[in-house]
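Q: Predict the assembly, please.
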Amino acid sequence: MIKGPVLTIENLRTYFYSKSKQAFIRSVDGVNLEIDKGKTLGIVGESGSGKSITAMSVMGLISAPPGVIIGKIRLSTESIQKNLLQGLKDYVRINMSTGRIMEIYKDNVGWQKNIDRIMYKIRGREISMIFQNPKISMNPFITIGSQITESIMLNTTIKNRSKAKERALYWLEQVKIDSPRLRYNNNPHGLSGGMCQRAMIAMALSSEPSLLIADEPTTGLDATIQSKIVNLLAELKSTVGVTTMLISHDINVIRELSDQVAVMYGGTVLEHGPAKDVLSAGYEYKHPYTAALLASIPNEQHIREKGYLQAIKGDVLDTINIPGGCRFHDRCEMITNKIKERCENHEPDLKDISANHKVRCWLYYDS
Amino acid sequence: MKRYSQYSVEVSDFSDVPFWKKASFMDLVYVSYGIFIVILVIGSYIVGAFDLLPYDPHEINLELLMAPPQSSGHFLGTDFMGRDILSRLIIGIQAYFLPGLLAIAIAIILGTCFGVLAGYWGSGFDTIITYINNLLNSFPRLVLILLMVAAFKPDIYYIMVIVGITNVPVVASLIKGKIQFLKQKYFIEAATALGLKNRVIIFKHILWHNCRSILIIQATLGMAEAILMETSLSYLGFGVQEPTPSWGNMVQAGANYLMQGKFWPSTAPALAILFTIMGFHLLGDGLNNMLERRRNK
Amino acid sequence: MAKTILEVENLKKYYIQPGGIFTPFKGAKRIIPAVDDVSFYIKENETMGLVGETGCGKTTIGRTLLKLTPVTAGRIIFDEKDITQLTPHEFLPFRRQVQMIFQDLDAALNPKMRIRSILKEALTVHHRLSDAEINREIGELLEKVNLKKSKLSNFPGELSGGEKRRVGIARALAVGARFLVADEPTSALDVSIQAQVVNLLKDLQKNLGLSYLFISHDLRIVELISHKVAVMYLGQIVEMGMAGRIAHEPRHPYTSILWSSLVEKKSRETTKVSTDSKKGTWGVFDFERPHTGCRFAPRCPVYEAKGKPSICNEPSKAPQLQDIGDAHKVRCHFPL
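A: Predicted assembly structure:
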């Protein structure tokens, strides 16, 4: 039996290079996360906050040169315990000046080979992923049934095709696809969007992974279908109990499904804590960004009064020119004179406010 | 180890950076070389117009047949009739340049018209143009030109009209593809909704803003192709006729003496063809990279 | 009493799908009724929300209002004139008044034009202006939509999503539009930016007296911004009425399901209809062959609960939009 979190991400940095702008895009810039066994970690953030890139870094899918990853991603499951970024440092040399990365030398081929060597038995087997667009993510020419069967034969101990097929039907039933025996022979484009997402979930779960990454599983679906998928995921969480990293920009989905929540902004985690605390409007200790984000969603009162929404001023952070100091200070409305100087010049650390609730804000530093 | 480096200063507004600073070094080299070749071509006309040639290119000197380069005052030597090769080389480009421009003009103008018809107004034109394209593709271009020469006379302008016409489907399909791509982005629809006339949408939004790089590249490639086509025809004896000098008939005439070890009459024009074609190709390539990358992000 | 700015009567838009090269063997072409017999009106300074699932024909309605696609039948009366009969040239004056905010952020913006020339083009398309006037107008526009002046020299690709959306709105205003068709204006935006855009749209309506047709699948935003709401299902309006009543006292089973499916409300809302996922064939509907009679019947919980009454299946007795008081209309035999 293993102890501790299934996945630990320490100080993860993923940079991309923009050739036209001659600059590094700091998509993920110092992320610390932990996922406990059997729990769901929700990652909320706006576009460009680096939530999807974090997931892709974990899956080892960052290949566009020079998608440089620094930091530690520890996966510890019953069968495998290792750092997923082991040895990647050897293929990269970084020149810094005045705290900024100015030059990166990278051996792309060696880097890719090393990633493939590390991830060989992990992708699909230990970590599987649900993508945003199921129709694109599945092979359009192969029936969903045989795709799931293939996945089962490849990634689990079941090597017998007929047994694998039975298992695939079991998973199709688990995700509430009606008449699974008929749907087994459907191609992805023959299914509606919601059905296809269900099939995708079945495929991800069929390899019985230690960690499931769901990247925007409900985005782009109709409201009625969306709620069905959320219901399904909630139900699967209690029956199958797989450790999940759930990524979404929809706060309501995250609130419904996760135990822990990380709020990301501009490539870093601003707040990390229990979902019921972080995402409830009444909770006192939270990051100003989380508070503003919650307030900008239309609630009952806004709708009744036909009033204005509380918008966050300014624009989403440009991850090339990250300002010094707190990343949110340009848009923050809760800066007091006392901490103003610190907000503008120094970036705060994630500070423990209570047990397992951390906030990255100068408001919660006393002196 | 590949190197990636970033600006040392914070770049806040990328549109202020002039495009030649964003272009890669090699593209700059390509384009400069291409422009150099174009300047040489224009220079040839100036030299011809002001009579600055070292010798008269048509003057026959029977006492100095096949003089080697650097001898007796001829920098590149003389050919089998004793004419100065350098002078003929300088004048030779003039055999291509205006006819080449004609070929380009035909290809670009007709190609754009057909491309817009097919891409903007729909499937009927599209089908017709595909058929014409297939028809022209199934017919060897050289055979078409030889037929033309047989029917009329071996004039470079007639040949270039054919070269231009056979290039029309290429340009048309490029423009058509681009318009069909742009139509998916809805901004043509948005321009219609704004009340803009079709004429404005086609000329301003589609051709000027989004297709000009395609057209520039097709023009430069068209010039290179015109030169190549004339050369191969000259070699067959159907190109520019003696005594008018062209690089093609110079190569052809000089090739007879290669076996005797007299390489210069054919080598000089051959090299000129090589570098000129390379120049036009690189110009198109470099301009493409620079124009496209400038606007991409 | 506000004047009616737009009236749509029995609008129909059928797409005809040719059956490919085997048509002669397969028989008739397939006709897809994207919009089938839709009628509504919008008054000045009013917002009408249009909600429905993907493919229910909301966007098609928006496009027909701008004459971007021809209608099959029906009338669109804008300012007491039927615009479906006008030639493109006669329609030009109306282009100034009706504009569209496209769903795609990049849609309205030619990627190779700077923001200044995009706005300038919109300003000068119907008027002849001097340079000084153009500069003044652009300044005013930027103020209206709350955009920084430094962005004028940028290309659309260099702007963020919210800024692109603002340019799109500014462009519609530059023409002098009084009526905006907003096709999913917030769907591609982040939550914090979405609130800015919604506030901006509300502000513009207050200050300039605009009318909107607000097409969206985000029910909360529709409820917030609209005065009245029409719910569409498979090309037909199934329920129409004041926003609050549609959201809180829905009479059509489909509306009820739509609003109860909001993830946020799910845990506490008690709806009149049970939405058990095992029941019915959720998410499977055939647009090409709508159910005869009531189109919603195959998914309808009421139909199921009442023991599949034959009136719902009767092709000759398809339900009609009936007024049930207070400008609330429902297309159902058994309104809740």
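The CA atoms of residues 6 and 168 of chain A lie 26 Å apart. Chain A has a mean pLDDT of 84.
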